[in-house]
Design a protein that fits this description.
Helix content is 18%, strand content 39%. By secondary structure, the chain is an alpha+beta fold. A hairpin with a 4-residue loop joins strand 2 and strand 3. The protein starts with 10 loop residues before the first strand and ends with a strand.
Length: 72
């Protein structure tokens, strides 16, 4: 992503979030994957875990930019 300060080795992923059936859906467009969480306080950890599991990246090198909204 442009305009985002990162530390060496860090990857930034955009995450879209929206409410659905008493949970929050988290969608990561770059890897076309989604998960749900009970609330926004859990969103960052859940998104980083999903990305790490599916990409093999170290969760500590992943930064998520979570915004409310659905994919277009």
């Amino acid at each position: 992503m442009t305009g985002v300060d990162t530390t060496p080795g860090e990857r930034v992923f955009r995450v879209l979030a929206w409410p659905s059936d008493r949970r929050i859906v988290l969608y990561v467009p770059d890897i076309e994957a989604a998960t749900t969480v009970p609330g926004l306080p859990d969103a960052d950890d859940a998104a980083r875990s999903l990305i790490a599991d599916l990409t093999g990246l170290d969760a500590h090198t992943i930064r998520c930019e979570i915004t409310m909204g659905r994919p277009r």
